[in-house]
Amino acid sequence: MERLKELKFLSVSQQVEQVEIFTRYETSNKYRVIDPTGKDIFWAQEIVSNFILMNFLRARRPFVMELISVEDSSFFLKIDRPFRFLFQDATIYGPNGSILGSLEGQVSLLERRFHVLDSRKRKVYDIVGPMFRPWTFHIKSGNTNVGKISKAWSGFAKETFTDADNFGIEFPPHATPELRAVLLGAIFLIDFAYFENSGK
Questions:
Q1: Do 35 and 169 meet the contact criterion of CB atoms below 8 Å apart?
Q2: Beta carbons within 8 Å of 130's beta carbon, 6+ residues apart
Q3: pTM of structure
Q4: Residue 194 phi/psi, 5° resolution?
Q5: What is the pLDDT of residue 176?
Q6: pLDDT category, 161, cuts 50, 70, 90?
Q7: pLDDT at residue 139 greater than cutoff 60
């Protein structure tokens, strides 16, 4: 967790799968997590146990995303999203399997909202995406914006023919490394919840 302690910003880039460009066949998602200097620090990959279920449920499919350190190939994080028909939830696990925190989708007509919970299920932040600014999600402490998750333009061909996405996260300045890991996990949940099928 310490490698997240001093970082103010990270970007996450989904990797283009060539088979998705030419077919409607869904493949497991893969991402690069990049520090502010442009260096890859983690690789993330969706662990798929059932390709038929994945292609049937598509963006609503349950998933496990594992992040591996580029430096030494060690396991860093696991994001576990169970199947939910309406609500988008996920639990984030650390290197030793302990729960670092979780994300809970909330019902809202005018915005997209998640509660960010610590390991004791205490709400620390809200992630709020205004309905008319679909690429921006504010990280809020009470009524104060303390950080942001943004979807960035990926380029015409990438946006048109695939569902690959790019995101940036600006961490709250006083967030613990554990909560930064939970907020990093929120990017993958947001991608699946709102952008996974956008290129189809």
A1: no
A2: 110, 111, 136, 138
A3: 0.84
A4: -125, -15
A5: 96
A6: very low
A7: yes
Residue of 82, 196, 175, 61 lying closest to 127 (CA atoms): 175
Q: What is the pLDDT of residues 46-87, one digit of tens each?
A: 986 555 565 555 555 778 999 999 999 999 999 999 877 667
Per the listing, tokens 């554990």 go with: 178
Structure-token pair, residue 65: 């995303």
Q: What is the 3-state secondary structure (H, E, C) of the chain?
A: CHHHCCCCEEEEEECCCHHHHHCCCCCCCEEEEECCCCCEEEEEEEECCCHHHHHHHHHHCCEEEEEEECCCCCEEEEEEECCCCCCCEEEEECCCCCEEEEEEEECCCCEEEEEEEECCCCEEEEEEEECCCCCEEEEEECCEEEEEEEEECCCHHHHHHCCCCEEEEECCCCCCHHHHHHHHHHHHHHHHHHHCCCCC
Q: Which of 189, 171, 167, 190 is nearest to 180 (CA)?
A: 171
Cα(58)–Cα(35) distance, integer angstroms: 29
